[in-house]
Amino acid sequence: MTVDVAAPAVPADAAVPADTRAPSSARQALFLLGTQSDPQSERGVDCPGELPAASDPQLVERARAAKAALGDRVFILGHHYQRDEVIQFADVTGDSFKLAQAAADRPEADFIVFCGVHFMAESADILTSDRQAVVLPDLAAGCSMADMATAAQVARAWEALQDAGLAGTTVPVSYMNSSAAIKAFTGANGGTICTSSNAKAALEWAFERGERVLFLPDQHLGRNTAVLELGIPLEECVVFDPRRPSGGLTPEQLRGAKMLLWKGHCSVHGRFSLESVQEVRERIPGVQVLVHPECQHEVVTAADLVGSTEFILRTLAQAPAGSKWAVGTELNLVRRLAAEHPDKTVAFLDRTVCFCSTMNRIDLPHLVWALESLASGQLVHRITVDPATAADARTALDRMLTL
What we know:
403 residues, single chain, 15 strands
């Protein structure tokens, strides 16, 4: 994967010779905001050229003008978790896979501007033609969950399974919320990708081909799907910690597990707690709790309904007027749903504000900068996945499409 920034990005998995590593104290040095940057850890913190101020009253008109100037050459994708000021310019709104598919269905567009996060833009590049350029307005818009599984960590985990004689009977299943490198690993090792909508089908497919599943990188989606939809005992779902030898598991635990759950989680959905559910039921009598399957198992089991983002959208759209809902997902989306359904009570499950901080890096100033740059003939922040990685990742995605 490469990105076109002034300073070259250094992949997180890049090997660093031992004699060139900085001392521990130097590697952990903190930089004053805006004074220095570390290209090995701060991808995309700067934009070449002038970035409009967030308070610029002409931003909306500038975005409209730049989009109009580009015409059919540009196609803007907006993830559900984006703020409204960005969503208003999206040609299509959806979850990560829906948006990647929408990009693939728009071959006439020269530029795909992805208002989402890094792994989503990678997926769009994999599914679109080489002629098209996928642009991420802010390269720092990443995903903490996707970053919890690096290619080097997964390679070491697979080696541990090989050493235990278990790799041949283990099928990797990776969540869409993963890097292109992890998708490529999955494709190269006989696995498939899943979304929160089709995780059950993906696991059923995998168990037809192996005795156990290595589920990456979100432990909660894997556990909730396995236990609640496939009936796998909770004790047969073990957490594989990539920071510990053999994942912190004994050979007996590895052999006895049906689900090897990578120790990863969503920073937004993972913060909802059982106390959140109990508190909202007391605060809003008669409320129905609707949560995303990335939430912790105890939250999901305490909720009334659980499902993907698209499921949440459909449920609220079909709910009767006057019904009351507490929704456990990203706050921008919950606020939008509340505005779209004024005849219903739609509340946020947690009383603490919980935006997706990395998704929110794509703001109106960055979108305006990207569109105006493209309109002026300057291609900025293009996301590309190298052909070998893209080929294996496409294999895993194609397997998902056949489910």
